[in-house]
Amino acid sequence: MQGARTKGLSGVTGLVTTKFYDSFIYADIAMYYAKTSGRNALRFSDPQMQQVINQRVLLESGLRKALLDQQFQLYYQLQVDDSGSPLGAEVLMRWIHPEKGVISPLEFKFGLICQR
Asked: pTM of this prediction?
């Protein structure tokens, strides 16, 4: 057909096999993982996906509490040139958790938007 247009179709699918009332939650999680994998992806839900989300929720909750309770400390690390002369300083933030001790920024690097 002359002048006809073709359109591509792509999608993502999340599949789950579990009890009905949990199905929507797990299917949504599987779909999220499929979306992060790119177009035309298929992912099956598994318990590890939920565990990752649970850990993130706990971490975000802990970060909010840490901000309120002022559990963060700043550390300054001197930066020097080749001759040892000071150039400046790097500021490092550490979360001093009352039960877990020092928590590395690598564990909470995803960030948390703070509203005042």
From this structure: 0.53
